[in-house]
Amino acid sequence: MRRTITAGLAALALLTAVLSGGGAAHANGVPQLVKLTYLEGVSNFGPKDAEGVLEFSFAEAYARVDVKNLKPAEGYTYEGWLMGSAKPLRVGVIPVNASGIGALDTKLEGLATYDYSLFVVAARKSGTDQAAQPSDISIAGRFTVIGDDASGGAAGDIRPGQLPETGEASPPSLRERIGRTITIAAAAGGLAFAFLRIMQRRKVSHDQRSL
After folding, report:
1. Whole-number Cα distances in Å, 38 to 46, 122, 132
2. Taking Cα atoms as reference points, which of 148, 166, 173, 145 lies closest to residue 157?
3. HSE of 168 in the Cβ direction (CA atoms, 13 Å)?
4. Residue 161: is its pLDDT beyond 70?
5. What is the mean pLDDT of the chain?
């Protein structure tokens, strides 16, 4: 009896691990992390102690930017831009609070190529052309995207064989992943309870037949 229960619970735990792991996995390579700092030769605006981190994946067509010490400048808004040999791509607005902390979590809309090697946080002055990349650059970071596979041994995002479908939903946030894990754990707990009740009823029935 005890062995049966243990085996059932072990199988249930394995099922839970598979279900919870499947939702958070990235389908194409490892998302790339890029450190953002006041970069010599690139940065020309804002506090020099500002910094941040860019997490992105061309394969998944998403980007997340977290910044700190990037205090608001009157009359300006901060934007994320991808730069390289291709036309600059506007990633989105990065709202910051009075303490200089901000975040952007978005899809990479309009991604038509992977020829980017630099991410910048640009400062847009109010009233300027929204389609043009601002010339005032705050923090930035350089990166390299691997080729079609990871055979080179470097860590980072893999260049997909085709452009991603940016119409798909954005990857789940940390809060959504935690909520999904809690839901799966609750469901697993309910299944485990039902399994134990069935085994208990079978034992009682067996004991009664043995009398």
Report:
1. 9, 12, 22
2. 145
3. 10
4. no
5. 77
